[in-house]
């Protein structure tokens, strides 16, 4: 096992990794920016190193400073968390070149899955069902026009390097294609420095369902079931649940087996998530995330498996502590993402936390670095807490969630707590009938009219 792990991240995920290391008895070093000197993970880690200024480019993305911190503190492994450098293949390679273990997959897997065109080609080889679309990158408008005749409209022009919903444009008809093609390319160039795009049929009302996979270096692979992530705003997940309210046990076993097989065939190592769109009983692969996912706790709640600890153990060369047959799904779990943001404009609302009263009781789990008196820095993501609730079944979980949301107090800044309080009483949430369009096009649109 590792002697000392460097945590190259901040916020709730840094705390999550820190707790996993503590349970495994592994000492930790956390790197941080000047803005995070008083953060909870910095206070709780065994050692901390300030690596630069508040802007992420000076600190959490500052590769020489991170590697130097690892060297001077004698770390032998690095956990990248989520975001920042977690899916940067060059960084993973540099970590290895400096004699440290990167707690994640091999750099070539990060690279191939980070390019969505290549990811789709790999997924197809592994037997995963794809959204119909261009066979690879599309370089000219003429090529797009020719391909669109087979794909049909509406279609999506998507950035190969896309992420966070950027570089994605819908063309409803052939007349829209030129505009969608050029605006997706320029948005992709500005956001990712790469204007490569591809085409996909635009599914009119799918759900977003993803499968958690895990593999060790000894040829053992398993899937841990699905997470339903269709409650989205601006293509960002807000509320996730496991299991999905619409999948049967047989469907879960089928898509899980396909995902696990593709993972094994790739020779993948560690945790990963295969994201699918699901419509009319069919799955369509869209991308694979080669890191631990923000919503991983709901899988942990229903399987009893600590994904971060397993991730660390397989990176250290240990065998998976379970096989597919050992994985069982019990009860129901929901995660609510709590962001500090303006309720109407959704602009981040950082500032000093005066009140922090987390909910409690059986089945309630809070992943948050907040404490009263803490100042939320304005430089990073607006996610300040995750409320995860477990219940024996979906109704029980929703009942507990309502109570947990009523108890949770964060102030004075506005947060998404109020939105979640309304969401849990919406019919489409209660009966599980929502799709990826529901939150924006029905729920929030209706709220605006009132
Ligand atoms: P990103 O990496 O930018 O998050 P994804 O490919 O994961 O991009 O897609 C993000 C979201 O965009 C999906 O969850 C879904 O809501 C929507 N989306 C993506 N592809 C399609 C498609 N072909 N048809 C309909 N919606 C899509």
List the helices and strands and how they pair.
Layout: E1 5-7, H1 11-24, E2 28-33, H2 40-44, E3 47-52, H3 63-73, E4 77-79, H4 89-97, E5 101-102, H5 107-114, H6 116-125, H7 141-151, E6 155-159, E7 168-171, H8 177-192, E8 197-201, E9 207-215, E10 221-233, E11 236-242, H9 249-266, E12 270-279, E13 282-289, H10 296-303, H11 307-315, E14 332-339, E15 351-352, E16 355-357, E17 364-367, E18 375-376, E19 383-391, H12 394-407, E20 409-411, H13 417-423, H14 427-430, H15 438-449
Parallel strand pairs: 1-2, 1-4, 2-3, 4-5
Antiparallel strand pairs: 6-7, 6-8, 9-10, 9-12, 10-11, 11-14, 12-13, 14-19, 15-18, 16-20, 17-19
Helix pairs in contact: 4-5
This protein binds adenosine-5'-diphosphate.
Residues 131, 156, 162-165, 200, 202-203, 206, 208, 232, 235, 275, 277, 286-287, 436 line the site of adenosine-5'-diphosphate.
């Amino acid at each position: 096992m590792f002697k000392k792990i460097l945590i190259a991240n901040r916020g709730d995920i840094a705390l999550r990794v820190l707790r996993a290391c503590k349970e495994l008895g592994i000492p930790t070093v956390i790197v941080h920016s000047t803005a995070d000197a008083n953060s909870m993970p910095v206070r709780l880690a065994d050692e901390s190193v300030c690596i630069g200024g508040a802007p992420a480019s000076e600190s959490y993305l500052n590769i020489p400073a991170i590697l130097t911190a690892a060297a001077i503190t004698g770390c032998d492994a690095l956990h990248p968390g989520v975001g920042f450098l977690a899916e940067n293949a060059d960084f993973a390679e540099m970590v290895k070149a400096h004699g440290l273990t990167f707690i994640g997959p091999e750099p070539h897997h990060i690279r191939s899955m980070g390019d969505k065109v290549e990811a789709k080609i790999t997924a197809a080889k592994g037997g995963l069902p794809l959204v119909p679309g261009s066979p690879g990158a599309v370089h000219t408008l003429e090529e797009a026009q020719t391909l669109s005749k087979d794909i049909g409209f509406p279609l999506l022009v998507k950035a190969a390097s896309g992420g966070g919903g950027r570089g994605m444009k819908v063309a409803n008809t052939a007349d829209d294609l030129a505009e969608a093609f050029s605006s997706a390319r320029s948005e992709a160039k500005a956001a990712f420095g790469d204007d490569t795009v591809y085409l996909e049929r635009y599914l009119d009302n799918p759900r977003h369902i993803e499968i958690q996979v895990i593999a060790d270096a000894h040829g053992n692979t398993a899937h841990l079931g699905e997470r339903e992530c269709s409650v989205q705003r601006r293509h960002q997940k807000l509320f996730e649940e496991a299991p999905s309210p619409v999948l049967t046990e047989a469907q879960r076993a089928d898509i899980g087996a396909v995902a696990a097989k593709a993972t094994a065939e790739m020779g993948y190592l560690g945790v990963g998530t295969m994201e699918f769109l699901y419509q009319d009983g069919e799955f369509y692969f869209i991308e694979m995330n080669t890191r631990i996912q923000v919503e991983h706790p709901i899988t942990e709640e229903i399987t009893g498996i600590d994904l971060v600890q397993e991730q660390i153990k397989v990176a250290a060369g240990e065998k998976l502590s379970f096989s597919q047959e050992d994985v069982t799904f019990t009860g129901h779990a929901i995660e609510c993402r709590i962001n500090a943001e303006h309720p109407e404009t959704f602009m981040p609302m950082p500032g000093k936390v005066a009140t922090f009263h987390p909910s409690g009781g059986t089945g309630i789990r809070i992943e948050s670095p907040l404490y009263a008196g803490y100042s939320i820095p304005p430089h990073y993501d607006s996610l300040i807490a995750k409320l995860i609730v477990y219940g024996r079944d979906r109704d029980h979980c929703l009942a507990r969630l309502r109570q947990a949301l009523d108890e949770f107090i964060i102030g004075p800044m506005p947060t998404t707590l109020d939105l979640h309080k309304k969401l849990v009483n919406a019919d489409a949430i209660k009966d599980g009938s929502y799709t990826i369009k529901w939150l924006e096009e029905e729920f929030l649109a209706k709220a605006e009219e009132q």
